[in-house]
């Protein structure tokens, strides 16, 4: 990764951080991106230097790694590794999802936890940053295997979490089914119906309306605000959405509601092009009910074709929404998108664009929104779920969606205004990083060296 371009005040901090976290390339990348944006405040706020905020913010408050043994349906004992990184509690209890995917390691959980600090700050809600997960692969497992794994995972995790301490949610590989098993085991071990300990719960047991839809909807609301800023809209736009999980499905739904057409989606086996527009009902049936693959979608839809070679970013579009996973859009992909006329890229996933891709978008004048701003609707709605749990209340769909839309508008405005204040007009990444960081840094200064 290129490390040219850091303000001289930050270069030493960055080198020190890399030296004590060897091999954690995703974490280095996330820290670098934030430090790169902070140049305008270097030397301007003496307290930040005096209180070593930057150095402290890169060191998690607590990192927990644990063994997760579980038994397959055939009676084999399997051992997985569990993680919870409690990164920063300056603004509230640690808050961030759990990811179950074979690629999970400490670097990935730390990059996600680090990003979460600033994302949560941007939401304006009282939540700190954390993340967790396991290298467990839910794909191809039976319901009973998933349940035994979740129960074993929570048997260790329960002692570290709580509504005032650390509040996990879902992420890749962790949806409603997994959260149900996790919550059930927490309740059993602690003998407490502590609704506020997890978010993303089912509607009949403490969940919030719109939480399932929130990240995808929020990403599209954010993209819409970016277009509005230029006097444009999503109406009639051709859109490509990568992934076909929770975030992607509800991004597709909101694009269609706002008059755009999603012509391609993907999973780890390839991508699907459907020039008639993705059939949302069929997609949900295949992914959410049958837990199937995109090849099943193509079998049931004559206008769709499956492409197993090459990148989804070769499909021409006006708007690209990467909603699958980190580093899924390379510099080469970015150049292809630019050649094909892309106008806007908003991240639904966390850090999906490689640094070279972001640079290419900026150089070409393509509107680009970093995930910590554009995908913050998920965690913001989780915070709304916590509010409902604390007041033993439950809100309707319309009022919760209206609250989400307003939060996304506020985050967008905060990014635009902060970028302008620090002479980086139109740079959403700088605006998001500066606004997110300043709020956390101010709270850390107020709370002393802890
Ligand atoms: P899901 O597990 O529901 O879906 C993930 C999708 O991405 C699947 O289509 C999956 O394909 C694909 N995918 C995952 N890993 C890879 C990979 N290594 N290569 C190619 N495709 C891959 O996860 P979510 O939709 O919840 O999360 C997607 C992204 O959004 C993640 O970056 C997550 O951190 C981020 N995010 C999620 C939030 C939420 O509320 N859920 C909140 C904020 C951010 P396959 O099925 O083939 O594996």
Short description:
The chain has 450 residues and is α/β, with parallel strands linked by helices. The protein is built from 17 helices and 12 strands. The strands form 2 sheets. The protein has a 7-stranded mixed β-sheet, sandwiched between helices. A 5-stranded mixed β-sheet has the order 1-2-4-3-5, with helices on both faces.
Notes on the protein architecture:
The protein is an alpha/beta fold. It has three domains: 51 residues; 133 residues, 3-Layer(aba) Sandwich (Rossmann fold), CATH 3.40.50; 159 residues, 3-Layer(aba) Sandwich (Rossmann fold). The chain contains 17 helices and twelve strands. Strands 9-8-7-6-10-11-12 form a seven-stranded mixed β-sheet, sandwiched between helices. Helix 5 links the parallel strand 3 and strand 4. Helix 2 runs parallel beside helix 5, helix 2 packs across helix 17 and helix 15 crosses helix 16. The radius of gyration is 21 Å and the shape is globular. The site of NADPH dihydro-nicotinamide-adenine-dinucleotide phosphate (NDP) has 22 residues, from helix 9.
């Amino acid at each position: 990764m290129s490390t040219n371009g850091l303000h001289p005040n930050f270069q030493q901090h960055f080198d020190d951080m890399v030296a004590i976290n060897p091999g954690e390339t995703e974490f280095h990348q996330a820290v670098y991106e934030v430090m790169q944006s902070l140049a305008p405040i270097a030397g301007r706020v003496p307290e930040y230097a005096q209180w070593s905020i930057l150095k402290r913010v890169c060191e998690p408050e607590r990192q927990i790694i644990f063994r997760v043994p579980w038994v397959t349906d055939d009676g084999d004992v399997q051992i997985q590794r569990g993680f919870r990184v409690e990164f920063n509690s300056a603004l509230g209890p640690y808050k961030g999802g759990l990811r179950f995917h074979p690629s999970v390691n400490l670097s990935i959980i730390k990059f996600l936890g680090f990003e979460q600090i600033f994302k949560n700050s941007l939401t304006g809600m009282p939540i700190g940053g954390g993340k967790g997960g396991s290298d467990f692969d839910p794909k191809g497992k039976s319901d009973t295997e998933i349940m035994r794994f979740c129960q074993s995972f929570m048997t260790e995790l329960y002692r570290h979490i709580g509504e005032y301490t650390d509040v996990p949610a879902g992420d890749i590989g962790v949806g409603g089914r997994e959260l149900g098993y996790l919550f059930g085991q927490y309740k059993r071990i602690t003998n407490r119906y502590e609704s506020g300990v997890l978010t993303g719960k089912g509607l009949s047991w403490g969940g919030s309306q719109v939480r399932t839809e929130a990240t995808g909807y929020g990403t599209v609301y954010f993209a819409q605000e970016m277009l509005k800023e230029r006097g444009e809209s999503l109406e009639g736009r051709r859109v490509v959405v990568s992934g076909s999980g929770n975030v992607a499905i509800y991004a597709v739904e909101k694009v269609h509601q706002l008059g755009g057409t999603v012509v391609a989606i993907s999973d780890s086996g390839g991508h699907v092009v459907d020039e008639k527009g993705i059939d949302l009902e069929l997609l949900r049936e295949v992914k959410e009910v049958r837990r199937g693959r995109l090849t099943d979608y193509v079998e049931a839809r004559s206008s769709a074709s499956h492409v197993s070679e090459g990148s989804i970013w070769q499909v021409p579009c006006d708007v690209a929404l990467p909603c699958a996973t980190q580093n899924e859009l390379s510099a080469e992909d970015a150049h292809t998108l630019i050649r094909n006329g892309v106008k806007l890229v908003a991240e639904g996933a966390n850090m999906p664009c490689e640094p070279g891709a972001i640079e290419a978008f900026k150089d070409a004048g393509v509107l680009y929104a970093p995930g910590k701003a554009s995908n913050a609707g998920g965690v913001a709605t989780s915070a709304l779920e916590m509010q409902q749990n604390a007041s033993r209340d439950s809100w309707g769909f319309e009022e919760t969606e209206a609250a989400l839309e307003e939060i996304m508008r506020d985050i967008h405005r905060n990014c635009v205004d902060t970028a302008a204040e620090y002479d980086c007009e139109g740079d959403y990444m700088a605006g998001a990083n500066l606004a997110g960081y300043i709020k956390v840094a101010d709270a850390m200064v107020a709370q002393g060296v802890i």
